[in-house]
Write a structure and sequence with these properties.
By secondary structure, the chain is α/β, with parallel strands linked by helices. It has 3 helices and 8 strands, in the order βαββββαβββα.
Length: 133
């Protein structure tokens, strides 16, 4: 049940947004072992004049920057899986958007299983129920 929130430094056309959401979903499933049906991706855009790097607004509207925050349950992925995910997401974003600012960030937040869930049930309680079966 990962949740991915992508902030993009400029508006993108619908087909680009779809390509990004598809790539992020596929990488989350294939590299982090998450369920496709539970993978949520939200894309938000920020105007380039509101995106600052080194206290300067992003100058070239054709040069994208992005910030991806993904939340996963703590302890469900290895360091190697997370490192590969970060590298492959960066490569996918470059492939889709073209040149991107080096100051584009990917953060994987590991949330305690008792601190989040879906359908009114925490991840920890799902784990416990699975062990009881």
């Amino acid at each position: 049940m990962p949740y991915l929130n992508l902030k993009l430094s400029s508006a993108a056309e619908q087909h680009v947004c779809h390509a990004i959401a598809s790539a992020l979903t596929e990488l989350t499933v294939s590299l982090l072992g998450k369920k496709r049906t539970l993978t949520a991706v939200v894309l938000e855009t920020v105007a380039p004049h509101q995106w600052y790097i080194g206290a300067a607004a992003l100058k070239a509207p054709s040069l994208y920057s992005f910030y991806l925050n993904i939340k996963v349950t703590e302890g469900t992925n290895t360091k190697d899986q997370k490192a590969e995910f970060i590298a492959r997401v960066h490569a996918a974003m470059t492939s889709i958007l073209g040149p991107i600012a080096p100051e584009s960030y990917i953060v994987i937040d590991e949330v305690h299983g008792d601190a989040w869930g879906y359908q009114g049930q925490t991840q920890e309680s799902r784990y416990i129920q699975g062990k009881a079966l």
